[in-house]
Amino acid sequence: MIYPIYQKGKTSMWFRREKRPKEKIENKKLKIPEGIWVRCKNCKEIIYKKEIERNFDICPKCDHHFYISAKKRLALLYDSGKYQSFDDDLQATDPLKFRDRKKYKDRLKEYALLTGLRDAILSTEGHIGGKKVVICALEFGFMGGSMASVVGEKIVRSTEKCVREKLPFMTISCSGGARMQEGIFSLMQMAKTSGAIGKLNEAGIPFISILTDPTTGGVSASYAMLGDIIISEPKALIGFAGKRVIEQTINQKLPPEFQRAEFLLAHGMIDLIIDRRQLKNILIKLLSFFDISPQEASTAQ
Ligand SMILES: [Zn+2]
User: Fold this and answer.
1) How many CB atoms lie within 10 A of CB 177?
2) Kind of pairing, strands 46-48 and 37-39?
């Protein structure tokens, strides 16, 4: 394909610069609603945004799974998109009085305004295929879905609720890892959440972990990889340290698909890769397989 080259000093035959009153230009801009078309990151096709939205935010040309918010994910999974959140009032206390370019406290306020959440997680309960479940979903839009005290505490409280009420537990992870602004307190959440999953196991409560792009750092190194069933979305990035860091440490070149869901499945690190459009149906099947009606769970103990 030949592209026109704009030469300095010459008038391009492709572009004509017209001087128009500013007001007129602004009026014209208003008529074109923003974000009608989206360029797919994977296949570079330009696609009508509504077409993607109708398709569970998946590219209709190449099946690339676009990022969606935690609330949207939950609405896709729960029956009629209805669920109730709990522990919404938990808030970080900034134990280190941390400050980088901005104060941590200010960052928290900023992201709270942006996402409508107090931290990077939503603890919810509702029904999937008629069965009651508890789902904790990380919100990447809140400081990269990072795990700190509140995320850890909400996961633990949710697991305790599952043990108490004999409900299956699920998590949807989308995270860059532990939150540096809470330092060691964030790292401690890895042990805290892992311990809580251990207690679920002792109580015979099933735990399904759903990984999305990306699930990295402390989240992948703790509860997210401890599911009885670990499901990933196609081509999701899943790993602990970054690829470049590992290459430099072991002084070896890693394969191109390293740390992608397909690579992890082939090496036994995860159980299933499920297309977002099929996820709910698969979860319904898994939930009936792991069925823990109150009577069964109490006799198992
Ligand atoms: Zn595409």
Assistant:
1) 24
2) antiparallel
Looking at residue 255, the DSSP 8-state letter turns out to be P
Distance 212 CA to ligand 1 centre (A): 17
Ligand 1 mean position to 38 CA, how many Å? 10
Residues in the chain: 301
Which residue matches tokens 């532990």?
178
Please give the average per-residue pLDDT across 89-116, as a whole number. Answer: 95
Are 123 and 83 in contact, with CB atoms under 8 Å apart?
no
Query: And the tokens for 130?
Result: 């008629």
Neighbours of ion ligand 1 (CB under 5 A): 40, 42-43, 59, 61-62, 64
Ligand 1 centroid from CA 204, angstroms: 41
Give the Å distance between the CA of 278 and the centre of ligand 1: 18
Q: Are 94 and 105 in contact (CB under 8 A)?
A: yes
Span from the CA of 22 to the centroid of ligand 1 (angstroms): 37
Coil, strand or helix: which one is 133?
A: strand
What pTM value is reported for the model?
A: 0.85
Beta-strand relationship, 121-128 and 169-175: unpaired
Hey, what domains does the chain have and what are their CATH numbers? 19-66 (no CATH), 68-300 (3.90.226.10)
State the pLDDT at residue 137: 98
Q: Which long-range contacts (CB under 8 A, 24 or more apart) does 246-254 make?
A: none
Chain-centre distance for alpha carbon 33: 28
Closest CA to 272 of 214, 193, 213, 209: 209
* Mean pLDDT of the residues in the chain: 90
Dist CA 119 CA 147 (whole Å): 9
Which H or E element spans position 40?
Answer: none
- Pairing type for strands 238-239 and 169-175 reads unpaired
**DSSP calls for 256-274:** TTTTBHHHHHHTTS-SEE-
The one-character DSSP state at 70 is H
